[in-house]
Structures are given as structure tokens and as C-alpha cells.
Design goal:
TIM Barrel, about 170 residues, alpha/beta, 2 domains, 5 helices, three-stranded parallel sheet, 5 strands
Length: about 170
């Protein structure tokens, strides 16, 4: 009987050891230094096509530019390949939302159109070879469903977004 209890005791100890040792080994392996992977790439603007040519691109590094923090944003263009302005909002009919529910200019639209700091950041980004992009949002579930079930709304959003992108090229 003593042998039976001792055997089960040893098995239980072994299982406890595994339960604690395996996470420890995993954690230890994550602490080991890994080779540094730099997001820096070389971007060269083609003079003929006004497009960017990516050289030695191993990693894309996106900068996030929300309209509410643009005035305090400190850019580091050397570390970025892309910068995304956040955000213009769509209505369920595919149009860019220009006014909020109170009748005031929608903040994302207003800042993109009127905030000189945002315009400077986007222009400086282009000059530094960082590709600007535009984030478009639709947050309410009913609006999302209405938009997704309306193919003419897709065309409307395409036209509106294309015009906005052209205005900021």
C-alpha cells in the first residue's frame, strides 16, 4: 500500500513540475534577445509617376494619426513607411459624413479640411517618403448593415473617398 501511495505522490509531483516548469521555459525563451528587426526602409518618390518605390521592404511600419491628437503628434518619419489619418466617417448611404448629429462639422472631416497641423504632417510625410493613407469608418451596426446591403452606396463611397484622396494627393 505504501508503494501505491508513493507512486501516486511521485506522479502528482511530476505533473506539478510540468505545470510550473513549462511556462517558465516558455517565458525564459521569450526573454532571450532576438535579432533587431528595423522598420526602416528606403522610399524613393518617382518624379515621373508621383508614386513611391519601396526598396528593401521587409516590414511595413504604420503611424496612426488620429484627428484628436494631431496637435501634439511628434512625427518620426524615418521609422515609418505609412501614416494613416483617422478618420472620416461614412453615412450608411456611402457619403462622407460632414456634419455630426448636432449639426456641427464632423471632427474627422473638419480636422482633415481645416487643421493646418494635419496638412503639414501629411505633406512632410510625403516629402520624407512616407505614404499617407486615409481611414474611413462606419461604427453603428445598423448603418454598417444598411451600407453593406446597398451596392449603390458602395459606388457613392468610392466616388466620395476617391475625390477626398485626390484632394490630398
Amino acid at each position: 500500500m505504501k508503494f501505491f501511495v508513493a507512486k501516486h505522490y511521485l506522479i502528482a509531483l511530476f505533473i506539478l513540475f510540468l505545470i510550473f516548469a513549462l511556462p517558465l521555459v516558455f517565458f525564459w525563451n521569450t526573454l532571450k534577445s532576438k535579432p533587431y528587426l528595423s522598420p526602416l526602409v528606403y522610399l524613393v518618390e518617382s518624379k515621373d509617376t508621383e508614386e513611391y518605390e519601396l526598396k528593401n521592404l521587409k516590414v511595413k511600419s504604420y503611424g496612426f494619426l488620429p484627428f484628436w491628437s494631431a496637435n501634439s503628434y511628434v512625427p518620426n518619419y524615418e521609422a515609418l513607411t505609412d501614416i494613416a489619418y483617422f478618420s472620416l466617417y461614412l453615412d450608411s448611404d456611402g457619403t462622407i459624413k460632414r456634419l455630426d448629429d448636432s449639426g456641427n462639422l464632423e471632427p474627422g472631416y473638419n480636422n482633415l479640411k481645416n487643421n493646418k497641423r494635419i496638412k503639414k504632417i501629411l505633406n512632410d510625410a510625403r516629402k520624407a517618403g512616407v505614404r499617407p493613407s486615409l481611414t474611413v469608418s462606419l461604427h453603428k451596426n445598423d448603418d454598417i448593415e444598411a451600407f453593406l446591403n446597398c451596392s449603390t452606396c458602395w459606388n457613392t463611397s468610392y466616388r466620395e473617398i476617391s475625390k477626398m484622396v485626390e484632394d490630398y494627393k
